């Protein structure tokens, strides 16, 4: 039997008691592994708001960067994801990324083309030979 539901249930108990649960991924399955971690925590009863807190504020605190990361506040770095659907309604909406903001630049998530403050297509790399980019 896969043990994650049991671990997620214990994580939910810890979070409900005021403990800190953070989200992490090993980088395998680029991008989706982290989503699986988010979604998996709800299997144990954590509410989506608590899961998002674990992925942002608690995670920033865990690595000692809560003064710079983890929440939207004046003076903090603001790398953001803009979603098409609300993850508070369903945590699986966390993968509906439409735009990404990094270092003050806005990118279209599907193509990573920069759309603000300048408009610039993502340069083609030697290992990426998508027909629409050639």
- What is the general shape? globular
Strand order of the largest sheet: 1-2-3-4
The number of domains is 1
Share in β-strands = 5-15%
Structural class: alpha+beta
Low-confidence stretches: none
Number of helices: 3
**Cα distance spanning the termini:** 47 Å
Number of strands: 4
Instruction: Summarize the amount of helix as a percent range.
Output: 25-40%
Mean pLDDT across every amino acid position: 89
Characterize the main sheet: 4 strands, antiparallel
Topology as a string of helices (H) and strands (E): HHHEEEE
Radius of gyration, taken over Cα atoms and rounded to an integer in Å: 17 Å
Fold and architecture overview:
It is a single chain. This protein has 134 residues and is α+β, with helices and mostly antiparallel strands. It has one domain (4-103). 29% of the residues lie in helices and 13% in strands. The chain is built from 3 helices and 4 strands, in the order H-H-H-E-E-E-E. The protein has helices at 4-16, 32-42, 48-62, and strands at residues 80-83, 97-102, 105-108, 114-116. Helix 2 (32-42) crosses helix 3 (48-62). The chain is globular and about 45 Å long. The N and C termini lie far apart (47 Å). The relative contact order is 0.10. The mean pLDDT is 89.
